[in-house]
Amino acid sequence: VGGGSGVDSMSARDMNLHYAADGRTLEHAQLLGDGAVAMTGQNGAPGRQFLGETLDILMAADGSLSKATGRENVRLDLPASAEAPARSIKARTIDADGAPGKGLTAARFAENVEYREESGKSSSTRAARARALTVALYDEAISSAVFTGAVKFEEQGLQASAGEGRYDPSAGSLRLSGVEGGVLPRVADDQVTIDANNIEVALQNRL
């Protein structure tokens, strides 16, 4: 299925589509088996992409997503922009909510979460793993990310671990807290290792 003001295309082995009373406005889509949804980006550029074995999405009257859930082999891809590098998140499940005119504004990922951020102007590739991740979304970017449970964060020359990690992509900052498996939050680079109850890490312009 292709075309639309909010969704550019959808595909799956099986698909159930539910329309409004006008017979034209798509309100609900169930994608069963290798589901994929490509969103319409800004100024005609590629937008967000959702993938998962099963995807269930609700759409507002303007075509924007108001809710999305996915199960098994879920992935969210966010395109690069002038202000932010490309990002991707993998997990077993996703539960996301949005608003008319804005699309999805928040999403929670659970089980075997893998986050990856490509290198930017002042940063190298960043990667993180955790049991769960909650993100706030704005346009095509992530405005905040909270990792919980066995958090491991890596950037060139730096490793961090904690029970919880609060990452601010725009500020390039990471706040670590929470004991995990009896171990305090830890940050290590080529020169020093720090263990403490709370650690603030400035990631911006480390290169």
List keywords for this structure.
0% helix, 67% strand, 207 residues, mainly beta
Question: Could you characterize what this model shows?
Answer:
The chain is mostly beta strands and 207 residues long. Helix content is 0%, strand content 67%. It is built from no helices and 14 strands. It has strands at 7-11, 14-19, 26-40, 46-59, 65-78, 87-99, 103-117, 126-138, 141-155, 158-168, 173-177, 186-189, 193-195, 198-202. Strands 1, 2, 3, 4, 5, 6, 7, 8, 9, 10, 11, 12, 13 and 14 form a 14-stranded antiparallel β-sheet that branches. Strand 2 and strand 3 (26-40) form a beta hairpin. The radius of gyration is 18 Å and the shape is elongated.
Q: What structural class results from the helix and strand content?
A: mainly beta
Shape estimate: elongated
Secondary-structure element series: EEEEEEEEEEEEEE
Overall residue-averaged pLDDT value: 88
Helix share of residues? under 10%
Largest sheet: 14 strands, antiparallel
Distance between the termini: 44 Å
Low-confidence stretches: none
The proportion of residues in beta strands is over 45%
Total strand count, please?
A: 14
CA gyration radius, whole angstroms: 18 Å
Number of helices: 0
Kindly summarize this structure in a few lines:
By secondary structure, this protein is mainly beta.
Layout of secondary structure:
Elements: E1 7-11, E2 14-19, E3 26-40, E4 46-59, E5 65-78, E6 87-99, E7 103-117, E8 126-138, E9 141-155, E10 158-168, E11 173-177, E12 186-189, E13 193-195, E14 198-202
Antiparallel strand pairs: 1-3, 2-3, 3-4, 4-5, 5-6, 6-7, 7-8, 8-9, 9-10, 10-11, 10-12, 11-14, 12-13
